[in-house]
């Protein structure tokens, strides 16, 4: 019952459709690994019920969800049954005696040759028959004791192509299943000159497989510099970060990170995120107390004519800052050559300041002051620790090898049966090939013609 269900075409088609369906969901619904945290905070604030439902069903993390892992595990089980019952057992069974009759109705390629030189083949003629097949790359691998039935095979290793190909797919799926179950992924936002301490508590966003523990990379990362570059149509050309990685022994090494060139260190890959922008540092000086400095991260706009915008509260105060940062106050630009910010500050819904503040200038908030003191780039970095990647590469290699065996070394088989008919010998010859049947038919005819010349 289980075997029939797992090998049923309906089951296979249903699993394929389910995988496609959930992959489409993963591309339509924003995923936690693709958007910055503030995107989901805003979504949660605007539509709390919808966000709660999506988060509950794990539709915002499709590929690491429990139900997706169950789906992949089910596909794996079906593939195991398919390899064993539809590939391996059929191959082993075909190595035994062939019960199929050699008749014209049983094979597409069939010929009957009658000898007029006696009722026995003889050793000489038998060797000549084998030589004819050998010259065409065929070798006998099944011969009855009476030497009345022969099977000649060509590219016998090609018979294993299907098994090797499916085993490769199985290895890839098992490796992916293992990787999803133990995968560790973390996202951080770093301002130039900041250092990520490499602790589990420091992640802005963290996603772990269902069996994974805390994600401590085991090293620190210092952002030396970040440089964006753009095409003429304002699209991103490249994002580059200069990083210094400090291991647990205090040794450091500098790395260049870009969109096309991730970094791998101690089994963890670091990817350059496309989330970046400017960090604006403001110093709040209250009439009583010490000055407080806070950095606000503003996302980069899609066009240089648009400002870097953001609305955030100043920590430990009731001030809310609505910022529209212009890197160049004279002309549209992505680069901070003449920076200024259109700033609105409110305290308990009461407007305290509205105006334009240039870099290093001060805004008066009643008796308090707010100084525009710092401008730095910030960028997102994604850390990923995947397990089972060597198995994935092994699986792809096996699948590639299997495909080569299937298509480049397609198996061909010719059956030969000796039938005594009075004073004559009649040979019934039939053949079959899984692929390139037209080419095989031509080859079969040429072998038959050669045999006919030897026997008649």
3D structure, described in words:
- With 456 residues, the protein is α+β, with helices and mostly antiparallel strands.
- Among the domains are: 105 residues, Kinase associated domain 1, KA1 (TATA-Binding Protein, 2-Layer Sandwich); 100 residues.
- The chain is 32% helix and 36% strand.
- The chain is built from nine helices and 20 strands.
- Strands 4, 6, 10, 11, 12, 17 and 18 form a seven-stranded antiparallel β-sheet that branches. A five-stranded antiparallel β-sheet has the order 1-20-19-3-2, covered by helices on one side. Strands 5-7-8-9 form a four-stranded antiparallel β-sheet, with no helix packed on it.
- A hairpin with a 5-residue loop joins strand 8 and strand 9.
- Helix 2 packs antiparallel against helix 5, helix 6 packs antiparallel against helix 9 and helix 7 packs antiparallel against helix 8.
- The chain is elongated, with a radius of gyration of 36 Å.
- The model has no long low-confidence stretch (mean pLDDT 86).
Q: H/E series, N to C?
A: HHHHHEHEEHEEEEEEEEEEEEEEEHEEH
Total number of beta strands:
20
Task: Estimate what percentage of residues fall within beta strands.
Answer: 35-45%
Which parts are unreliable, with pLDDT below 50 for 5 consecutive residues or more?
none
Task: Specify the number of helices.
Answer: 9
CATH top level assignment of one domain? Alpha Beta
Q: How many angstroms does the end-to-end distance come to?
A: 56 Å
Shape call: elongated
Q: What oligomeric state do these chains adopt?
A: single chain
Remind me, CATH topology of one domain?
Answer: TATA-Binding Protein
**What does the average pLDDT come to?**
86
Radius of gyration: 36 Å
Tell me what the CATH architecture of one domain is.
2-Layer Sandwich
